[in-house]
Amino acid sequence: MAVPGLWAGMDAGKAEHHCVVIDTDGQRKLSRRVANDETTLLKLIADVLALSEGEPVTWAIDLNAGGAALMIALLTDNSQQVIYIPGRAVHHASGSYRGDGKTDAKDAFVIADQARMRRDLQEMHRPAPATEHLQTPHHQHV
């Protein structure tokens, strides 16, 4: 697998997400709050991919379900690498970053930067639909 050119950190929420994109040197290339709707998220994905100039992007997100489900589905449907960073790991790591307080933009930066530096994070894959495992009922003739 090629080394990513960009890391996109997503601080996920129910109604909105904050995305920060950094390069290999940890320099911020984009910071944007986006609504959690398909059109807006697809635009964000397209903008980040345009920034990457054909280099791989690693997306990192702090939720693996709930409000993040649509973003994860859109990323995996578009063949993007997505890794999960648990919120508690973000919380612990954020203390070592400059800046006071907790903001969505800071958390998104921490998520991107942790994804850039760590090698122990799990890649996420879109789960198969629950109905895929169910057998089609056989019709009985009476």
Task: Summarize this structure briefly.
The protein is of the alpha/beta class and 142 residues long. The protein has 4 helices and 6 strands; from the N terminus they run E-E-E-H-E-H-E-H-H-E. Strand 2 and strand 3 form a beta hairpin.
Explained architecture:
This protein is an alpha/beta fold. The chain has four helices and six strands; from the N terminus they run βββαβαβααβ. The chain has helices at 38-52, 69-77, 87-94, 104-117; strands spanning 6-11, 16-23, 28-35, 57-61, 81-84, 122-124. The protein has a six-stranded mixed sheet with strand order 3-2-1-4-5-6. Helix 1 packs across helix 2 (69-77) and helix 3 crosses helix 4. The model is unreliable at 130-142 (pLDDT under 50).
Round the Cα radius of gyration to an integer and report it: 17 Å
The number of distinct β-strands equals 6
Note the overall shape. Answer: globular
**Sheet/helix structural class:** alpha/beta
What is the arithmetic mean of pLDDT?
A: 85
Q: Sheet with the most strands?
A: 6 strands, mixed
**Helical stretch count?**
4
Strand order of the largest sheet: 3-2-1-4-5-6
- Quote the distance from N terminus to C terminus: 57 Å
Please provide the ordered H/E string of secondary-structure elements. Answer: EEEHEHEHHE
**What portion of the residues fall into strands of 2 or more residues?**
15-25%
- Poorly predicted runs of 5 or more residues: 130-142
The helix content, as a percent range, equals: 25-40%
